[in-house]
# Entry
Amino acid sequence: QIDGWLYESNYFDRGHLTRHKDVRWGKTPQEALQAAEDSCCWTNCVPMHSQFNQKGDETPLWFELEHYILEDCIEASNFKAQIITGPVLSQQDPKYRNVQYPLSFWKIVVAVNSQKKLFATAYLLSQAETLEKFGIERAPEVPFGQFETYQTAISDIELLTGLNFKYGADRHPLSKIDPLRQEYRPLEPQETQKPFRTSHLLSSPEELRLAPPEDLSLKDRPSMSLPHSEGGNYNFSHEQLI
# Structure
């Protein structure tokens, strides 16, 4: 496990995968504060370029995506959501100070909307172009367009990461699933950076949508269901969970 030495005298941030504010909730203020502090651990950090991770004059889309999901959608609409996030890891990832660091990151958002319908969508962002052009030792001011973000299918995230987000329709749909049971083939660098057929390129923060765009709908996929606490099931199709 790497720690602070990797981040010294360069423009790598200790990028939180799960944002501090995302877990700052609980039955009491003390419980909420403790939950937020628990996010400040090395296992929740990954090397992120400062221009990619922090809000500045030119807002990086990863920051804008996190803000959009929590403040603009979850808090504004007063609903609960599960957010799963992580890096795309490859054996071919570049090295800095003899440590490999990821070029791409993903988020999956699952929630129940006001109509009691379960929906989910996924996002994928790469900073490869910016790192290749400007390097790590300098942090130039770069335009928004330098960061490529795609709203994409969850199946694409499965392909990139080797993780498994499928489940059964029992009372505990995720508890009996091995998230690593899929056969995993390490991807080449160009495979982790190219858009998929199901991807929708986001060129500005204004294009962010929590619900998937129409061109991400995969209508030939079967419908599924998940149980909820009041009995019965949430029924949804892969148009909603993609």
